[in-house]
Amino acid sequence: MSPAEDPADDSLTAARETLRWEAEAVAALAGRLDDRFVQVVDAIAGCAGRVVVTGLGKSGHIGKKIAATLASTGTPAIFVHAAEALHGDSGMVAPGDVLIAISGSGETREVCVFARMVADRRSTVVALVGVADSTLGRTADHVLDVGVFREADPLNLAPTASTTATLVMGDALASALMVRRGFTETDFARFHPAGSLGRKLLGEKAEA
Q1: Distance (Å, whole) CA 208 – CA 202
Q2: pTM of the model
Q3: Angle at CA of residue 97, ends 93 and 98, nearest 5°
């Protein structure tokens, strides 16, 4: 087999292209952070209850991570699976909560129905969506565009760049809220007493 026919070369090319597309998807988000993003931060910071994050499929996995990051950085948050929400778990959303609903297409049925239920209860709905002019986008009070030019896999089909962009937007929200709340290293350590980083921070505070 000649070097030109080496499958390893094709594999490396695909891997590098994946990294390039994902990096471009993340970089594109910076230009979308404007007053709409600040309004979402305002809504969450002023929330009398909790942030409830929902999604389905890969978006659901990303939603769990976003909820966990928010909760560990000073913003009370939980994840509610969109399908389970339609079978009773929507009761976890109380007046004063903020729902962050995630859908790449903005047309995921369970997510859209859940978002409509929450909107009808006069709770705030934030959409992290790839298509602003979609059912979910039109239902939400606030829309954060996490759309990407293309997915990062060779077939342009698997949720890759889109889920990475959504995850990073969640991190951006968490960081902005940390600053808004004045969340400190001491707060972080108290939230993470069993982790190595938390123990390190608590030890440093004890020695100070």
Answers
A1: 10
A2: 0.91
A3: 105
